[in-house]
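Entry 14. Structure prediction run on the chain below.
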Amino acid sequence: MADTISPERRSWNMSRIKGKNTRPELLLRSLLHTEGFRFRLHDPKLPGKPDIVLKKHKAVIFVNGCYWHRHAGCAKTTTPKTRTLFWLNKFAETVARDKRKYRELEELGWKVIIVWECQLKNEPQITLSKVRNQLERN
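Output returned:
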């Protein structure tokens, strides 16, 4: 199915997609805060500007959208039917950049935790429990 709106309108729509303070990110921050965790946000000094930085635990958390960051096996990880090659390249670049930033953080001694949008939405308490367990592990 071809796009039903103009390229200008599509560009405008895409420009409105947030990269910070997304609904899943706000939910996780609220859950962490309720559990007593204190953190910083989007530290520009760290590779990839992690969504959440827990210095006490030397850990960072990325709250990844399933669509953009290609959550394997997730129903939200779809590919547009038009300009498919463009989108596949764009997604591949995003995944490669993610891996590169995670590796850079780990080389600096940071623990990297990935939280997926769908897991947080469907099972917030289980996701929080998994994050807590990862933070408490050495």
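The chain has one domain: 21-136.
Filed with the rest of this week's runs.
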